[in-house]
Amino acid sequence: MKKWLFIPIVFVLLFCNSRLSLHAISTILLVVEETENEFVPFKEITPFSDGLFTAMWETPYIFFDMQIDKSIPLFGESLDIRPYMEEVKSSGADSLLLVKLTYQTYEKKSKLYLKITDIPYLLYSTSEMKLLKSGKKIINIDKQVENNSKNQILKDLGLEIVDLIFN
């Protein structure tokens, strides 16, 4: 009887320790880079960012966003947090969320095509000084779209990324 009770307790402990320590997060500095055809769109809010912000409003976290004037750098295979650490501290946030979307649109036989391969992301806790989650959401889209459906696809991807990171 003790063996049967011990095994589920071990699995519960392992599962709890493998979960993100999101309990330490209360405020997040959100840095989003959205690039279309190697150019940053001139609009204030872009469809992908709009999806991210919409999804973030549904989370229990307070978040601030930051406009950036240059690309989020890579450190090895991951997004680099170093250029943003001072901004995180000065904003009062206890966490940093970096998300980078690069996509191409092109015309072929007067039809619009959208191509996205992946979306790298990184969640870092400055209060615990550790990486909470990092990775790439593999998308592999290369298809014909209408202009309004392109915007909806990008917005939906923003929603999906937040769900992937926090759930």
SSE blueprint:
Layout: H1 2-18, E1 27-36, H2 47-57, E2 62-66, E3 74-75, E4 78-79, H3 85-91, E5 95-108, E6 111-125, E7 130-144, H4 147-166
Parallel strand pairs: 1-2, 1-5
Antiparallel strand pairs: 3-4, 5-6, 6-7
Structural class: alpha/beta
Question: Order of SSEs, N→C?
Answer: HEHEEEHEEEH
Quick check: average pLDDT? Answer: 84
| Total separate domains | 1
Count of distinct strands: 7
Q: How large, in whole angstroms, is the Cα Rg?
A: 19 Å
Task: Give a verbal description of the structure.
- This protein has about 170 residues and is an alpha/beta fold.
- It has one domain: Rossmann fold, CATH 3.40.50.
- About 35% of the residues lie in helices and about 40% in strands.
- Strand 6 and strand 7 form a beta hairpin.
- The radius of gyration is 19 Å and the shape is elongated.
- It starts with a helix and ends with a helix.
